[in-house]
Amino acid sequence: MTILIPPECATNARIDLDHASGDEIVGRVRPDRDDPVFAGHYPGFPLLPGVYIVEYVHRAVLAAMPSEILAELVSCRFLRTIDLDDELVITIRRDGGLRRGTVAVSGVPAAEVVLRYQEGNP
Amino acid sequence: MLDRDDIRRLIPHRPPMLLVDGVSELVPRSRLVGSYTVTGTRPLPTVLLLESWGQAALVLIRHDRPMPTVLTDGVPIAGAFEGIRFGRPVLPGETVEHRVELIRLIADTGFVRGESVVGTEVVMQVGRLVGAVRPAAALRPAVPAGVPDVKEST
Fold first, then answer.
1. Does B18 touch chain A if contact means CB atoms closer than 8 Å?
2. Count of domains for chain A
3. End-to-end CA distance of chain B
4. Which interval of the chain is the signal sequence (chain B) (predicted)?
5. Which end of chain B is more exposed for a tag (fewer CB within 10 A), N or C?
6. Would you list the domain boundaries of chain B?
7. How far does CA B112 lie from the centroid of its chain?
């Protein structure tokens, strides 16, 4: 199956949505080990780019609300490294105009990502 | 003043994840202007614009201490992003210019801010990025330092 990559996205990792409502999105993703990026990030030491974590959270929002346009990465903190074999559970809650995402591995938070989307977008 | 070959000697990123082509201005411990030209047929993905800016910041921080190989020189990792505002996408054929300002450098942890422009148009503002360099062995204890991560034979 061909996975359509939104034009602003870098990864073709598949997001599986477990739950999506106006206030909460829960999804799962596994890093794509075959992504050519790992040849250069880094040679002999494949490491998931931190910006991919940001994109996974954005992709989970898009999976639930495809027409959203990202305006700002308000904040992102990386709490621990993520292995390429890890399954990431993404939980996103609406907080006014923000989307607060937590990325967890085996129940332990690995990153916190807060995104803001353009207002007035249908 | 620095071209792509120079940059390969300074930072460990390699294609397709080497996203800085040149540096036109570098004031040590202060600021840098770097550039990247988008190849291919797709706009530069949003998060790769941020990655590209971060690589330019790494050149500013490590230009006097080259780190071309992660296994021996350490691994650059992102610690935090704050206030990253995105404008319009950078299109194929366009050159984006990254302006990086060093806020502070504490041991191997750097705090930087700045913006990216195409021509006179701001396409990204970076409120703050915190980046660090960690020993490879500290990130992946299962891989002894100096031994490449080898895929299982097929």
1. yes
2. 1
3. 45
4. none
5. C
6. 4-136
7. 11
| ipTM greater than 0.85 | yes
What is the tens place of the pLDDT at every residue in B4-60? Answer: 999 999 999 999 999 999 999 999 999 999 999 999 999 999 999 999 999 999 999
Q: Is residue A122 part of a domain?
A: no
* C-beta neighbour count of B17 within 10 angstroms: 22
* Alpha carbons B113 and B81: distance in angstroms, whole number: 10
Tell me whether residues A40 and B71 touch, CB distance under 8 A.
Answer: no
Q: State the amino acid at position B23 in one-letter form.
A: V
Residue A7 belongs to some domain of the structure: no
Report the C-alpha gap between A44 and B14 in whole angstroms. Answer: 11
Q: Band of the pLDDT at B154, cuts 50, 70, 90?
A: very low
- The DSSP call for residue A38 is G
Nearest CA in chain A to B45: A8
Give residue for tokens 């190849």.
Answer: B39
CB contact under 8 A, A73 and B86: yes
- B73 sits in which H/E element: helix B70-73
Q: Is the pLDDT of residue A7 over 80?
A: no
- Assess if residue A53 is contained within a domain: yes
For the stretch A23-44, pLDDT in tens is: 999 999 999 989 999 999 999 9
Q: Is B59 near chain A, with CB under 8 Å?
A: no
- A6 vs A36: CA distance, rounded Å: 18
Architecture of the domain whose range is B4-136: Roll (3.10)
B74 interface with A at CB cutoff 8 Å:
no
Q: Which domain, by its residues, includes A23?
A: 15-117
